[in-house]
């Protein structure tokens, strides 16, 4: 469906809760000068850090794309976004090219060497089930190594094509709505205050309205909007905006936004959105809106960083997203198709209305971006494009407990599986080859991680319990090739750390916490994939923030403990049955530590807290 202007006027007649904003004339919401970012050093929205804690350089990181430049029209007289390649010049470029070539080639060499027919295990006078076990293990090893080749090649490809847009000043006089949502009971009102207060200080040479989309029609929220002079909208009590499914699904983020879009979207050219826990910096609009001078740009997104640095889980979960925000999204710029990220973005209202608003999905942002990228701009006939800017323009709050981190990872992975099954296979033929490749590499990350983890467990069980062995290889050659391939893979990751976009990670940091978090999340991706295959219902869970973060309990780690039992059982069988091999035992021990890692980290945190107390 397309949300029409007539439906917008009809919706307005239903009189949703609305707090009028006093007129401030041209430049509503602008600041007279350029103060230093008010949120610098905040551990979370609206909260000050300890006096002895150094602030973070949000000011510099909000200009990573470079200074604003004058828009230069193309040969057709129309401005088009220009880009700068991320790969360096001279020696840096030579070293990067060598690393990009060697890392995937050596991984591919290892795969080809492993699965050559001469290494297949041929046993005589064995039962059918032993043959089946050997064959299954051979296929498992081949798939595991294939996925590793794809992962290394994906990172090498992203490094090669990644680029940053050259920022330009926005076109003056545009009508912009700044939106954030609120779910009473899930997000503290003081967090909402911090976000709305920062939004009223945004600089914009045009008309700017700030809106709170209140899911529960809270009296306190309406009073806050009246106090700050911002608009209040609620869909509560309106049946057509609270449907069991579709664009107006009840109790969902996309349903909340689509209801506002239906009611008021026709009055604006652009909508800027942040999650409730994200505080926008004063130059949020100045650094994003300029790209819309290109008529084919549908949306602009920025990186996601977490300011609640006092939480170990939040710090590590931000580091986990390093590759996506520092590299993968920048690679999307090469094809005009960075992924739509809901935490902080600006959207051309006409493009969003054209595809019927935000898509009905657990991960509505990715699904909506895919819909937009398959549509054409009716004015130009070109495919809609998107832009990713590395500028840090909003500081948010990440999951501060293992419970909330697990729920976040389960939701993201399940939403990706949903997009893969419901959308991607149909949309891929409407995408250019570059965009199809870009999306394929993104949507296959979670399923590859999940299957890789499950296949590793299956291989351990087949060898240590049944004595199966799909390959017969020289362990010295295997160790040499595997060690070299792993070293280059890690080297590629560390090389790309130079492109870090987070002001919270120290210069030259290894990102080890992020790599560890990715490994610790693999069991969750496997659980989520099983739920998708078995078609178990998955609902949208709002992650509590601030003081309302979900507490961790022993049952929080049930999934990881289940996998720990599997690998512990495999090691026990190996010792009892004599099925020992250095590589398999090493993998089983590492997998056991990964499965126990979150629980051990939680217990260590509790022990430290008691000791300090």
UniProtKB/TrEMBL annotation:
It is found in: Membrane. Gene3D superfamilies: Spore Coat Polysaccharide Biosynthesis Protein SpsA, Chain A. Signal peptide: none annotated. The keyword Membrane applies. Residues 1-55 are annotated as: Disordered. Pfam families: Glyco_trans_2_3. One of its GO terms (molecular function) is hexosyltransferase activity. It is a multi-pass membrane protein. The keyword Membrane applies. Its main location: membrane. InterPro entries: Glyco_trans_2-like, Glycosyltr_2/OpgH_subfam, Nucleotide-diphossugar_trans. CDD domains: CESA_CelA_like (cd06421). Residues 273-458 form the Glycosyltransferase 2-like domain. One of its GO terms (cellular component) is plasma membrane. The chain crosses the membrane at residues 445-465, 554-577, 583-602. Keywords: Glycosyltransferase, Membrane, Transferase, Transmembrane, Transmembrane helix. This is NanG7. It comes from Streptantibioticus cattleyicolor (strain ATCC 35852 / DSM 46488 / JCM 4925 / NBRC 14057 / NRRL 8057).
